[in-house]
Amino acid sequence: MAFGKAPKDPFGTAVGSLIERATFGALQTEEWGQFLHICDVINATEEGPKDAVKALKKKLAKNCNHKEIRLTLSLLDMCVQNCGPRFQSLVVKKDFCKDKLVKLLNPRYNLPIDMQERILTFIMTWARGFQGMVDVTEVKEVYLELLKKGVEFPSADTSTGGPKSSSQHPTKSSPSSANTTKRTLLPLPTGPTLLLTAEQIGKLYSELDMAKMNVRVMSSILKENVPGSENPDDMNLLQKLYKTCRVMQERIMELLVTVENEDVIVELIQVNEDLNNVLLGHERFSRNRVRFLENQRIQREREELATLLSPVPLNPVNLQTGHTTSLNGSSAAATSKNKSQSPHYYEIMEFDPLAPTEAIYEEIDVTVLKPEVKKDTEC
Question: How far is CA 29 from the centre of its chain?
Answer without folding.
Answer: 44
